[in-house]
Amino acid sequence: MESHVADVATASDWSVEEASYLYQMSAWSDGYFSILPNGHAAVEAQDDTVAAIDIRAVVDDLRAQGITAPLLLRFPDILYGRVKQLNEAFLATIDELAYPSSYTTVYPIKVNQLHQVVEEVLEAGKSYNLGLECGSKAELVAALGHLESDSRLLICNGYKDATMLRLILEAQALDKQVIPVVEELGEFEELLRLGKELDVPVRLGARVNLTTAGVGKWAASCGDASKFGIEISELLYMLDHLEPEGKAGRFELLHFHLGSQISDIHALKRAVREISRVYVQLRQRGVEVRYLDVGGGLGVNYEGNFPGAEQAINYTIQEYANAIVGVVQEVCDQAGVAPPWLLSESGRALTAHHAVLVVEALSAQQHSGVDASWTLSADDHRVVEDLESTLRWVEDLATTDRNGVPPLMQLVEAFHDAHEKREEANQLFSMGYLPLEQRALATQLYWTILRTIDGLVRSVDPTELPSDLAELDDKLKERYLCGFSVFQSILDHWAIDQLFPVVPLQRLDEQPTRRAELVDLTCDSDGKISTYVAPEGRQAHLDVHELTPDDHYYFGIFLTGAYQDIMGDVHNLFGRLPEVHVYADDEEPEGYYVEKIIPGNTVEEMLASVQYFTRDLQRRMKAIIREKVDEGKLRPKDGVELLDRYRRAFEKSTYVNRTDP
Ligand SMILES: *Cc1c(COP(=O)(O)O)cnc(C)c1O
Fold first, then answer.
1. How many CB atoms lie within 10 A of CB 606?
2. pLDDT classification of 244: cutoffs 50, 70, 90
3. Cβ neighbours of residue 371 under 8 Å, at least 6 residues apart?
4. What span, in angstroms and rounded, lies between the C-alpha atoms of 648 and 640?
5. How many CB atoms neighbour CB 467 within 10 A?
6. Which of 36, 165, 333, 336 is most buried (CB neighbours < 10 A)?
7. Is residue 8's pLDDT more than 50?
8. How far is the CA of 257 from the centre of ligand 1 (A)?
9. In the chain, what are the helix, strand and coil shares in percent, each to the nearest 5?
């Protein structure tokens, strides 16, 4: 990859196409993001009548209104696009195979429960009669309020207590399409008991624990070790208790869930085949199963599909739809049984793309070296002298013309020398033989030597470099301090090594010359982005531009719309970010309009969440100040101003704000 960048460097014709390749936009953007000729990252238009949205321009606009990074941009147009893409894919295959039944998406709200997001998904899915899925009491309560239409499905997964089951049955009595999915037998017994009590026949389904094992990170969602779902023998027990009475209830839905991010379409097909067999046999026993619910797991490509890319998805949405409809149809046809109404609980695939986290680079830090004008002085220590001679040697190598071929073996030797001498300097220091200034000088010389070597080998294909030199990329990367918290905004990057594509929002028409690691504001060494999408795989640094004092430099962290919004953690009391909903619109001069701005958490809110109360803290601060005023340490007027500043801090954002007066 380095070699690619360097080749282009010599050609000096950097273009936005090069940037698009470098950041692998086509691998993960699914057509939703692009780069404009002005070098800004953009949201692609969802139909031909509107132009792409310049993300950097939106951020500048918001800054002018006092809304500063970090912030979360939501693009509802993308949610619409995803809902449509998924539903049209199923409709197309249903049409093509003349599948005699139908398909409905039920959106699992745990993926992103934010009210605005759920409402936008529902709105986008209106013409497809999109339904909802919930997995807890709070989610059930939220979802029940959104069943305006009697035909909107609500599938209730997860463990359910009597409060939940009662609400579900009462909704059924109102003709709402609410179906509890039994996770364990106790729930079934409770459901029948409540049904009798309320004198209504229950409608229910069950999550069946298939023998097909899950795949990927969430493999334990299915198979023998799964904590969810009932066994086939338990399913038969349930049916026995429903069948003789008939009026006790109807078994309407078969469900399985292989786990999120199904990477391999073959695993999905095996599971669909197995559940289809169960379906067919139940129908043959006279059980009128209506729905077959294939759960979630439709994957999102966060990186390219390279050999070794752990999280790559080997299929498209269309192939996913084809696989499900095709397999169910085949099994049903063989048995001569009418095929079921298909449901999928696709969450990640609907919401991941719509949110872009915007963070600002606040500073760049790198190991300091010696100035070009630095020279050895007579009283420098021998170890410094040795490092100096290594540096001069490397500088000589740099100026000798070898037809562009760097002397790799000599450079490795110089690298080893520098390394050894630095170690020696550290040991001498520990034993008390080297003064602090000399140790600092030794370290600076070490970094200057490494940078000089790096300058010579950057144009070499990394696969042809000796391993010590190939590591220079990572050794020499700078730390770009960014105003955000990994734990609040991209928790999965820390928790499960989820990769999120990161792209500068500007200057993409300019070749990036720096290598950086993005670090966050938390006091935690894990608070950083440690892997990045790159051509031919992943790398431990991002290619970035040099920061300039006269302009802001923003990064977009993409595909953060699934799970991250809700799993965020308040490490160091960094709170929720301001959220902004941006719609494309050609009637507007800038080609977009901002509909909703939801403010982020204030210091006061974050403190209250851990039981520090404003009045108490301010009273305490006042007492401290008064004591100092009484002691004569502080003038009364300064004391008043200090207290005032302390009070104002409660209303501030929890993040660093450089524009604050
Ligand atoms: C988490 C979950 C989903 C959503 O999975 P995605 O991979 O986001 O599509 C669907 N159904 C159940 C039962 C789940 O637990």
1. 20
2. low
3. none
4. 12
5. 8
6. 165
7. no
8. 7
9. 45, 15, 40
d(CA 76, CA 71): 16
- Which among 110, 139, 228, 301 is the best mutation to test ligand 1's pocket, defined by most ligand atoms within 8 Å of the CB? 110
How far is the C-alpha of 121 from the C-alpha of 349, rounded, in Å?
A: 12
Q: Which among 22, 146, 84, 166 is positioned nearest to 539, based on CA atoms?
A: 22
**pTM confidence score:** 0.91
Using CA atoms, how far apart are residues 205 and 278, in angstroms rounded to an integer? 13
Q: Are 131 and 122 in contact (CB under 8 A)?
A: no
Q: Determine the Cα–Cα distance for residues 239 and 317; give it in Å rounded to an integer.
A: 35
Q: What is the DSSP string of 618-643?
A: HHHHHHHHHHHHHTTSS-HHHHHHHH
Q: pLDDT grade, residue 273 (50/70/90)?
A: very high
Distance CA 55, CA 42 (A): 5
360-389 exposure pattern, b = at least 16 Cβ within 10 A, e = fewer: bbbeeeeeebbeeeeeeeeebbebbebbbe
- List the residue whose alpha carbon is closest to atom 4 of ligand 1: 296
At 449 the three-state DSSP class reads helix
**Cα–Cα distance for residue pair 617/623, rounded to 1 Å:** 10
Cα 107 to Cα 140, 168, 299, 349, distances in angstroms: 13, 18, 14, 10
Q: What are phi and psi of 512, to 5 degrees?
A: -75, 135
Pick from 83, 345, 492 the residue to mutate for probing ligand 1's pocket: most ligand atoms within 8 Å of its CB: 345
* CATH topology assigned to domain 367-474: Methane Monooxygenase Hydroxylase; Chain G, domain 1 (1.20.58)
CA distances to 175, 189, 553, 581 from 350, in Å: 28, 35, 30, 17
pLDDT of residue 417: 97
Q: How far is Cα 306 from Cα 316, in angstroms, rounded to an integer?
A: 15
pLDDT surpassing 90 at residue 444: yes
- The residues near 597 (Cβ < 8 Å, ≥ 6 apart) are 62, 67, 578, 579, 580, 581
Per-residue pLDDT tens digits for 543-552 = 999 999 999 9
Distance 258 CA to ligand 1 centre (A): 9
How far, in Å, are 140, 165, 197, 202 from residue 186 at the CA level?
Answer: 19, 12, 17, 15
Give the DSSP per-residue string, 162-189: HHHHHHHHHHHHTT-EEEEEE-SHHHHH
Reply yes or no: is the peptide bond before residue 70 cis, omega within 30 of 0: yes
Residue 4: the pLDDT is 45
Residues 633-652 have a mean pLDDT of 96
Q: What's the mean per-residue pLDDT of the chain?
A: 92
CA dist 421 and 273 (Å) reads: 65
What's the gap in Å between 301 CA and the centre of ligand 1?
16
Residues 6 or more apart from 373 whose CB is under 8 A from it?
none
Return all residues near 52 (Cβ < 8 A) that are at least 6 apart: 34, 36, 42, 43, 44, 45, 584, 591
CATH fold of the domain at 78-300+309-346: TIM Barrel (3.20.20)
- Ligand 1 centre to CA of 228 (Å) is 12
Max alpha carbon distance in the chain (Å)?
Answer: 102
Give the SS3 label for residue 514. strand
Name the one residue in this structure whose structure tokens are 């912030």: 71
The string over 401-432, giving b where at least 16 C-beta atoms fall within 10 Å of a residue's C-beta and e elsewhere, is eeeeebbbeebbebbebbeebbebbeebbeee
